[in-house]
Specification:
Number of domains: 2
Distance between the termini: 37 Å
CATH topology of the largest domain: Rossmann fold
Helix content: 25-40%
Radius of gyration: 18 Å
Number of helices: 10
Bound molecules: adenosine-5'-triphosphate, magnesium ion
CATH class of the largest domain: Alpha Beta
Strand order of the largest sheet: 6-7-8-3-9-10
Structural class: alpha/beta
Length: 247
């Protein structure tokens, strides 16, 4: 199976504080990989390194077979939304997406993509008049409009209402079915378990546990979320005891 992202033995410190410590994982072609970790676990840092926006102290990262360098050509194969999307708010969505397409040297049907993320009819409104959820939707539109092969979405469900969350999940599934690989982060187990195919739990600076969601959810039954929270907190053995038929 083709590997879309390969993170190998990556280390990263900010000053004397080591955030990522010998971290390795892979994302397979066409899958939705959920990166789960508590606040400050290093999810955003890892995503920025994959995008070539942060320097690694050690190890290596390959995306679509190329070393992560953040160059323009490299970025046109990736769509991303890191933390809260930032826009020139005096412009409207159509103008912003058109600038983005020019930068990526791609063409697309802007009203169609706006409709896809639930912003049909809002394309001519300045972004300064958008609600938080509308900005989040526009961030997703910007991440997908140039038809990337890999999507990196850092907590993309933040600020969305329950209906929008359901719509976004469906959109991610649809993009995944169309062959786009997705890396998704969250600190909320329930948010990610219904979207991701596999989950990697980032704790202590590395992927402490990694599993196929369906399989592990079946093994743990009602204890699944408690198990995941234990691992997120670094308590592997306490988590493992929650397995069906465990102690
Ligand atoms: N540019 C920076 N300079 C110094 N420290 C930083 C920097 N960016 C992040 N950190 C620190 O690195 C750690 C990991 O931060 P990061 O933003 O990657 O975590 P996260 O998992 O995305 O958290 P959250 O769920 O709150 O978004 C935190 O302790 C944070 O304070
Ligand atoms: Mg973060």
């Amino acid at each position: 199976m083709e590997k879309v992202v390969e993170v190998r033995s990556v280390c990263k410190s900010y000053g004397s504080s080591q955030v990522i410590n010998n971290c390795s994982f892979e994302i397979r072609s066409g899958e939705i990989y959920g990166l789960l970790g508590v606040n400050g676990a290093g999810k955003t840092t890892l995503m920025k390194m994959i995008l070539g926006l942060q320097r690694l102290d050690g190890g290596s990262i390959y995306v679509l077979g190329k070393e992560a360098d953040g160059g323009r050509k490299y970025l046109s194969d990736i769509g991303s939304m890191i933390e809260m999307p930032v826009f020139y708010e005096h412009l409207n969505a159509e103008e912003l997406l058109s600038m983005h397409l020019a930068l990526m040297e791609k063409k697309a049907d802007i009203p169609e993509v706006l409709a896809l993320v639930g912003l049909g009819g809002a394309g001519k409104k300045p972004v300064s008049q958008y609600s938080l959820g509308m900005k989040q939707r526009l961030g997703i539109a910007r991440a997908i409009i140039h038809r990337p092969r890999l999507l990196i979405l850092d907590e993309p469900l933040n600020g969305l209402d329950p209906i929008a969350i359901t719509e976004m999940r469906e959109l991610m599934r649809k993009l995944s079915a169309a062959g786009i690989s997705i890396l998704l982060s969250s600190h909320i187990v329930g948010e990610i378990r219904h979207t991701a195919d596999r989950i990697g739990i980032l704790s202590g600076g590395y992927i402490r546990q990694e599993f196929a969601v369906e399989e592990t959810a079946a093994q743990y039954g009602e204890g699944f979320e408690d198990y995941v929270v234990c691992v997120m907190a670094g308590n592997d053995s306490e988590g493992a005891a929650l397995k069906r038929g465990g102690m």
